[in-house]
Design goal:
- There is one protein chain.
- The chain has about 750 residues and is α+β, with helices and mostly antiparallel strands.
- It folds into four domains: about 180 residues, Jelly Rolls, CATH 2.60.120; about 90 residues, Macroglobulin (MG2) domain (Immunoglobulin-like), CATH 2.60.40.1930; about 300 residues, Glycosidases (TIM Barrel, Alpha-Beta Barrel); about 140 residues, no CATH class.
- Helix content is about 15%, strand content about 35%.
- The chain contains ten helices and 43 strands.
- The strands form seven sheets. Strands 1, 2, 3, 5, 6, 8, 12 and 14 form an eight-stranded antiparallel β-sheet that branches. An eight-stranded parallel beta barrel has the order 23-24-25-26-27-28-29-30, surrounded by six helices. It has a seven-stranded mixed β-sheet with strand order 36-35-38-33-32-31-40, with helices on one face.
- Strand 29, helix 9 and strand 30 form a beta-alpha-beta unit.
- The two termini are about 45 Å apart.
Length: about 750
């Protein structure tokens, strides 16, 4: 729907300018977002009528009435403290615009002096989102600037207004007169039936549509793009309709809506169907969240914790910042938000690991603490957090102290050095030595081996109960080596052998190092499996929710689900979220058994108790090529994709072929028995040697290595093979040459 609101600013007095508002509404089947007729009114009129637009100078003063070239307008008075021109479209209860609405604002301004201004507005993800800067040349005359907004929210969060004009560059004022607002509302509105479009396998996936006056066709697709369902429904209209999807199992789905006559695309969204597990969440799988950040309350609503439980996640990592708790020296006042998110996690059976971090303006001039007084202040705040939340099991001492962003705030001498962290850790540990809480740290950005060694040599090995790092490796297939070396550094110094990945993830941004949704899902599974293969007890994915709808910015796109009021719908799942839910239900708490080693790039890892018939193998190639795996067995094999698609493959003439690529697969039915090397016959040896079967290795025993055979295939790649329990042969027939990942 198209809605245009034109506002002619015609002040009649110096104290309270008077406005005239007009709008034009196009022919449309939808109800208008807001509509007006020609009306004159004063700023002092009460809100509520959709025909009003209010303008004012903010908290410090009123706007000046000015006349330039015979045309009157309003102007800021920066010398009197009136720095902005605020505007608010009064629509009664200001329901947020749909995230996909497009807003065009045109402002006529006086170009009588050098300077610049920009439009700032109430947007999704930022209550003061801004536009590009308009430069004023001082050439005179009234000119028009037009701004296109793709994420306008307009719920009066900007000092009770929807948008404002902000003059820049020193003392220059800005005068405006005519303002027009055009809103292109989406033709089809989607409403969720279940939060985030995340359903369990015993629930029926549904979406509510409304606001379109013609029949709508839709196509439901599996993760791989194949069509699952095609339907057409009558015009949803203003009353709306519920669309029910007939899915064929757990998985990640996309649905596309279009005009059934013209084929015009209208909307699209995603949804997940996850296993309905009675096991609850596993603390092996964690997610970093921002419930404790007071400026993130609009995005991290407490009900979104349900997305964690539905995905089988048993623990979250969040913070309670020092500056939010100790606002007066030696007085600790916890914000209701902190109590609420801790209680919400407890009610859902989610175990919180709390980050103790931040600077405080009351100590060391707000820099990263570097004095005995500052460190003692931090230690006492830490004790206040532990005392506040009885039963808290883990606290993490600081976050990424090894980088300047956190370990060198301000101009103090902390300088992100390991020695500075060690002194802070020692003070905190001493303050908490009579509590039952366990200390986690140092939560480094990356895995800086030398930095870690220094911390452990200066008391960290004795102070910490758990060692935590944030790998953030471009290639997830490096995580196992990083976790192995971290464990070695700790244990060699007499420290703990418990090691966590307390942050790791990849952004799905369109710029600056972002990766595709598909790679993100693959990486998540690969990194979890490799971390677990080296004894990592917990792995926290960063993070649950995208921080903003900006698809380009990396920091805004680490989420497992999209942000609130995203164009696809609030908290809708990315493929990585679905992959995590399938991982937790497939591998669950199964112990790591061992790895099947090959002489070519194939990762194959086993999870399950020794002798467990439900042993699961996770198999993929760490290079962007595919291979064919041949399974010679008399028994069926079950194969599950990371999105939950499942097949039971029965052998033909004792053989099953599986394609292996960068997307991991789960394989059941081969048992938990040992894997031994298979040596095919050579040209001079026509007999087939008997396979050697070795005992099943435990996670602490050495891994079995499988060498390449000399068998040649038609594709010129080497054939590889191994025998499971002497009864199942898996041969790797390389379909293409090996490439190294260049992430």
């Amino acid at each position: 729907m198209l809605v245009i609101v034109c506002i002619c600013i015609q002040p009649v007095s110096a104290s309270q300018p008077q406005l005239s508002t007009q709008s034009t509404i196009s022919n449309s089947v939808e109800e208008p977002v807001f509509a007006t007729t020609t009306t004159s009114y004063s700023q002092s009129l009460p809100s509520g009528s959709p025909s009003e637009l209010k303008t004012w100078g903010g908290d410090r003063g009123t706007l000046n009435t000015v006349t330039y070239q015979g045309k009157r307008g309003v102007e800021t008075a920066r010398e009197d403290g009136t720095n902005y021109i605020y505007l608010d479209i009064l629509r009664g209860s200001p329901k947020p615009l749909d995230r996909s609405a497009r807003v065009t604002i045109s402002i006529e301004y006086w170009n009588g002096q050098d300077g610049a201004f920009r439009l700032e507005y109430d947007g999704y993800g930022d209550f003061a989102a801004d536009t590009s800067v308009v430069e004023m040349t001082g050439s005179g005359g009234w000119q028009t600037a037009t701004f296109s907004l793709t994420n306008a929210r307009f719920t009066e969060r900007l000092n009770n207004g929807d948008f404002r004009v902000n003059p820049l560059n020193g003392p220059s004022n800005i005068a405006i007169r005519n303002v027009s607002v055009r809103v292109d509302r989406p033709k089809l509105v989607m409403d969720q039936v279940t939060l985030g479009n995340v359903f369990l396998s015993n629930e029926t996936p549904q979406i509510r549509l409304e606001g379109y006056g013609a029949p709508v066709s839709w196509t439901l697709r599996h993760y791989n793009g194949s069509v699952a369902q095609n339907e057409t429904l009558d015009a949803p209209g203003s009353d709306g309709q519920i669309v029910t999807f007939d899915v064929d199992g757990i998985g990640h789905y996309r649905v596309e809506f279009r005009d059934s006559k013209t084929g015009e695309p209208l909307r699209e969204t995603s949804f997940a169907v996850l296993p309905n597990s009675s096991n609850g969440g596993y603390t092996r799988y964690g997610v970093s969240t921002h419930y404790g950040q007071l400026n993130n309350r609009d995005i991290y609503r407490l009900e979104t914790m349900d997305l964690l439980t539905r995905a089988g996640v048993g623990t979250l990592r969040d913070n309670i910042a020092w500056n939010d708790v100790e606002t007066e020296r030696d007085e600790y006042n916890f914000h209701p938000r902190h109590d609420a998110y801790m209680a919400s996690a407890d009610a859902r059976g989610i175990e919180p690991s709390v980050i103790l971090a931040g600077t405080n303006d009351l100590y060391d001039d707000g820099t990263t603490v570097h004095t005995d007084t500052g460190r003692e202040g931090f230690a006492q705040y830490s004790r206040a957090v532990v005392n506040r939340y009885d039963g808290l099991q883990y606290v993490e001492v600081y976050n990424e102290f090894n980088i300047r962003r956190f370990g060198d705030v301000g101009d103090g001498p902390a300088d992100a050095r390991p020695e500075s962290y060690s002194r802070l850790l020692n003070a905190t540990a001493y303050s908490l030595n009579d509590s039952d809480v366990k200390l986690v740290g140092p939560a480094t950005s990356g895995v800086p081996y030398d930095w870690l060694e220094t911390v452990f040599s200066q008391g960290g090995a004795q102070r910490l109960d758990v060692v935590s790092v944030h790998p953030y490796a471009g290639d997830p297939n490096e995580v196992d080596e990083e976790m192995k070396r971290t464990t070695e550094i700790s244990t060699e110094a007499g420290g703990p052998d418990q090691v966590w990945v307390s942050e790791n993830g990849w952004p799905t941004s369109t710029q600056r190092g972002g990766i595709s949704f598909e790679d993100n899902a693959n990486y998540l599974v690969q990194a979890h499996v490799l971390a677990f293969s080296e004894g990592t007890q917990r792995y926290y994915t960063y993070e649950l929710i995208d921080q903003a709808p900006d698809r380009a910015a990396p920091e805004s796109n680490f989420g497992l689900v999209h942000t609130r009021n995203d164009i696809q719908g609030s908290y809708t799942p990315k493929p990585a979220y679905t992959a995590l839910g399938i991982l937790t239900s497939t591998v669950g708490a199964k112990p790591y058994q061992g790895e099947d080693r090959f002489s070519s790039p194939i990762e194959s890892h086993r999870f399950g108790e020794p002798g467990d018939k439900e042993t699961v193998r996770v198999i993929w190639r760490p290079v962007p090529t595919t291979s064919t795996v041949t399974v010679e067995t008399d028994s069926p094999v079950t194969v599950r994709t990371i999105m939950g698609g499942q097949q039971t493959r029965s052998p033909t003439d004792g053989t099953i072929h599986l394609n292996i690529g960068p997307e991991p697969i789960y394989v059941f039915g081969l048992g938990a028995d040992a894997v031994s090397e298979y040596q095919p016959p050579t040209e001079t040896d026509e007999s087939t040697p008997s396979p050697t079967v070795t005992p099943s290795p435990t996670p602490t025993e050495s891994r079995q290595t499988v060498a390449a055979s000399n068998t040649q295939t038609e594709t010129s790649g080497p054939g590889l093979g191994f025998v499971v329990s002497g009864t199942a042969l898996i041969g790797i027939l390389t379909a293409c040459h090996f490439l190294s990942r260049t992430d």
